[in-house]
Amino acid sequence: MMIDLVSDTTTLPSQAMLETIFHAQLGDAGRLDANGRGEDVTTNRLEDLAASVTGKEAAIFCPTGTIANNCAILARCSPGSTILLEKRQHILEVEKICFQQDGFRMIPALYSLDQNGDPDLSEIKKQLETKPVQMVCIENTHNFSGGKCMSISAMKQIKGLCAQRGIPIHLDGARLFNAAEALGVSPKAITEHCDSVMFCISKGLGAPIGSLLCGSAAFISKAREWRKLLGGTMRQSGIAAACGIYALENNAARLAEDRENAQYLAKRLHGLKALRADLQPQSNILLLDLSRAGITGEQFNALLNQKGIRGYILSATEFRLVFHLGITREDAAYVAEQILAIDQTLL
Ligand SMILES: *Cc1c(COP(=O)(O)O)cnc(C)c1O
After folding, report:
1. How far apart are the CA of 72 and the centre of ligand 1, in A?
2. What pLDDT, in 10s, does the model give residues 321-344?
3. Best of 7, 62, 66 to mutate for ligand 1, by most ligand atoms within 8 A of CB?
4. Coil, strand, or helix at residue 45?
């Protein structure tokens, strides 16, 4: 069987999670009642749970994180709006549509992150002072920097800078629960520093489908309209929401294991000669640097595949390994041995 470290999106629902579907009360989530809530009771339960864990007034269930992030942006901005974000954020690098000329033609203003995943606050301040920024987007944990966690103090300072100017902050918290675990705080201690947050249940939490967008009641009601226009309003979404409720109630508590496995692998890789590893992964992602190893990501992945391991080619020089509930400590030990063995054959 493949040890699949390509992403935490590869997690499969457990039997116990799937069984919650049989008992889920369902309705048409796209048909709203007098209170503006959909008719699917199970989806409403998940939305209420999400609002409660993030400390926000309301939430909507979306098919993907991409739709949820874009609903958040479109609820606040329009073509021509300037959005401050970091250049390797998922919203900019992968989702793109808000910034494309054949999309919503918004304008990115950029800030950078240091090696620890914390933002350059002086850059943020300068951008806020010189550009008509309408919204700030942050990402925690930060996927493409290898699951780095933005500190609570940095988020607090960003919030301070934005609050003075009345600028809303959206958190792309695809891995919010991994960030909370790594920082040793509750999700709320993170989300209190943003106005809206998206988190995925389809990643480390192990549900098959979906993401939640949380924020004020007024914001969520606008986002709900955008969800409809973007085709993100599902019908008997309680089938997926039931798994999400199970994920929040049962799988959030085990995320430390994934971080510990990533850190265990990093420790085992201290002796690498040609490859280099991020020796201090902060959450469930470990990045390898191939730049001095004389090997392409494709070649390295092919060598791993021969040993029953799969990872993700992040860029020409970066290779990503993601830990999740399908990966045991024994798997991590085997992966360490195989990477060390491959490393010996390089250079
Ligand atoms: C996965 C991810 C998303 C988008 O989620 P999808 O459900 O794949 O659309 C957004 N932001 C980050 C940081 C992610 O890792």
Report:
1. 14
2. 999 999 999 999 999 999 999 999
3. 66
4. helix
One DSSP character per residue, 333-346 reads HHHHHHHHHHHHH-
> How many angstroms does the Cα of residue 218 sit away from the middle of ligand 1?
24
Instruction: Kindly write down the DSSP assignment for every residue of 220-280, as one continuous string.
Output: HHHHHHHHHHTT---SSTHHHHHHHHHHHHHTGGGHHHHHHHHHHHHHHGGG-SSSEE-SS
Specify the pLDDT at position 98: 97
Q: What is the pLDDT of residues 196-254, one digit of tens each?
A: 999 999 999 999 999 999 999 999 999 999 999 999 999 999 999 999 999 999 999 99
- Tell me what the mean pLDDT of segment 46-60 comes to: 98
φ/ψ of residue 294, rounded to 5: 65, 40
Rounded to whole angstroms, how far apart are CA atoms 152 and 192? 10
- Residue matched to tokens 């503006």: 36
Whole-number pLDDT of residue 115: 84
Q: What is the full DSSP assignment across 135-193?
A: EEEEESSBGGGTSB---HHHHHHHHHHHHHHT--EEEE-TTHHHHHHHHTS-HHHHHTT
Ligand 1 atom at minimum distance from 210 CA: 7
DSSP annotation of 9? G
Residues 26 and 239 sit within 8 Å (Cβ to Cβ)? yes
95 sits in the region (left: phi over 0; alpha: psi -120 to 50; else beta) called alpha
Whether the CA torsion 305, 307, 310, 316 is positive or negative: it is negative
Residue type, position 162, single letter: C
Q: Which atom of ligand 1 is nearest to the CA of 67?
A: 9
The pLDDT score that the predictor gives to residue 124 is: 97
Do the Cβ atoms of 201 and 221 come closer than 8 Å?
Answer: no
Phi/psi region, residue 320 (left: phi>0; alpha: psi -120 to 50; beta: rest), is: beta
CA of 144 to the centre of ligand 1 (A): 11
Mean pLDDT score across all residues of the chain: 97
Residues 200, 7: contact at Cβ < 8 Å? no
**DSSP state at residue 38:** B
